Structure formats: C-alpha cells, structure tokens
Fold:
Amino acid sequence: MSGCQYLGPEFDPRTWDYNSNPTPYCGKPVVSGKSYCHDHYYTVYKRGTAIAGRKKEKEIDQEIEALKKQQEIDEMESYDV
Structure:
C-alpha cells in the first residue's frame, strides 16, 4: 500500500462503514522510508520526542550540578591559598 498508514483515534473497526469509505487510512504521500505522512509521523512519534526532550533536560540539569560542584571546589581551593 502506498500512502500514509495512519488510522487515527476516530477509527473503530467495529463501527467503520466500509461501504462509504473502504480505506480508512490517511493516504497522503509518506515521509521517505516511513509509513506516515509528515503530519501523522509527528503525531505518532511525538511521545518519543517528549521523552528525548526530558532526557536532554536531565542531562542539562546534571551538567549544571557538576558545574556548581566544581565552582564550590574552586572557591574552597582559593581560600586555602
């Protein structure tokens, strides 16, 4: 099948009217090498994006903590001189 494979949250195979719309898929042109169009690719994978965003935030927080610790160490060493 060519075209976007997104079914969407409104699709319910138990109640879908196949006579009026035999293909419930989106059908728009897909992102190269993927199964979804640009809009639906984002919709399907936005959770992954959020997780990656939180991971990056944690990495930044860890870097800030490391810099604060290093700053405290540097201040303590400057008092020892």
Summary: The radius of gyration is 25 Å. Helices lie at 38-80.
